[in-house]
Design the sequence.
């Protein structure tokens, strides 16, 4: 894309040199005509000099080089309402709107510059059932489909990030600027590359909504349970309100809701291609859609003398077991009912972890 853009730029310079008015003193009138060069139509002044882009060709220039066979008019940063970040200009070309000028500003997911100096430490939470029900519009939650309005390759991961930012903003207004990332692995992002959850969340430290330290570094985070943080949250990871997720309603009994989707192994790396509900894009329990790998927001208690058999853990927060399927659903029983194919069967609801790149 950028290569073609450079070709067009050189073509524009060459055209300006070759087609300049012969008299040398004639005033050139802007936007007199159109000229198409290398799949891009530019405005031309009365002297034949190329000006700004009028449209990008979806196929090629027409025969007389005055426009595109099929064109697309690109939008500017101002037209999109963006002041920072990279965006699609509406014609599948990258539109670079730049960075925020001030050192204390971050580009928000909406493409706006916002100061972060007034925000307190808040960079981790478990997505609560209440939040997922609200955002999905259903009692069963999202299931394995986390696209949340995103489309195209990589939509599941981008949608999950957007869910994280949306929930964080509701809990602490302004905190969506902290660049939230869902702790999820995928087999292919928008560029076809494997993405490991552990590589997405920065170096740490991370704090819950009440400012309690979860873990100071990535190495300490990637343990059976997060290490060297606040012991009051280590074994019952809190939701976006800072409430221990085992008992989200303090007026009621604890609930069996500890399964958190990660698609990852104990090191935070992709567990398997079949462990991500088609990279978090499907909420169908069919076997071909896989079974999401889950960690435990709080350790489960097993009445066993020996460790659980196979690749199962009773306490690992990243990778403990695989859910029954990718369909949406909420489960509060200790084990999946026969024939179950939901993300929630046996103790969950399709929750996941959210981390911010800024403390």
Sequence:
């Amino acid at each position: 894309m950028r290569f073609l853009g450079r070709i067009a730029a050189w073509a524009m310079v060459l055209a300006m040199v070759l087609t300049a008015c012969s008299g040398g003193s004639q005033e050139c009138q802007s936007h007199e005509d159109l000229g198409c060069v290398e799949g891009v139509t530019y405005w031309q002044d009365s002297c034949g000099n190329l000006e700004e882009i009028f449209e990008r060709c979806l196929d090629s220039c027409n025969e007389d080089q005055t426009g595109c066979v099929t064109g697309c008019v690109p939008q500017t940063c101002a037209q999109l309402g963006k002041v920072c970040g990279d965006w699609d200009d509406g014609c599948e070309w990258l539109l670079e709107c730049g960075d925020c000028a001030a050192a204390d500003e971050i580009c928000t997911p909406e493409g706006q510059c916002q100061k972060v100096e007034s925000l307190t430490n808040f960079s981790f939470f478990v997505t609560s059932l209440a939040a997922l029900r609200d955002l999905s519009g259903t009692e069963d939650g999202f299931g394995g489909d986390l696209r949340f309005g995103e489309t195209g390759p990589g939509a599941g991961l981008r949608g999950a990030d957007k869910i994280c930012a949306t929930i964080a903003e509701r809990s602490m207004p302004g905190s969506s600027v902290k660049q939230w990332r869902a702790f999820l692995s995928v087999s292919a992002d928008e560029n076809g590359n494997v993405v490991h959850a552990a590589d997405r969340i920065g170096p740490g430290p991370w704090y819950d909504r009440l400012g309690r330290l979860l873990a100071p570094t990535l190495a300490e985070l990637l343990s059976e349970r997060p290490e060297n943080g606040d012991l009051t949250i280590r074994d019952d990871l809190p939701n976006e309100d800072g409430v221990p997720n085992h008992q989200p309603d303090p007026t009621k009994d604890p609930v069996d809701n500890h399964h958190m989707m990660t698609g990852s192994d104990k090191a935070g790396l992709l567990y398997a291609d079949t462990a991500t509900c088609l990279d978090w894009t499907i909420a169908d329990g069919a076997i071909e859609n896989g079974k999401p790998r889950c960690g435990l927001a709080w350790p489960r208690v097993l009445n066993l003398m020996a460790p659980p058999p196979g690749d199962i853990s009773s306490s690992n927060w990243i990778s403990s077991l695989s859910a029954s399927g990718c369909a949406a659903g909420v489960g509060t029983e200790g084990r999946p009912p026969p024939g179950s194919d939901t993300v929630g069967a046996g103790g969950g609801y399709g929750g996941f972890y959210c981390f911010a790149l800024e403390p």
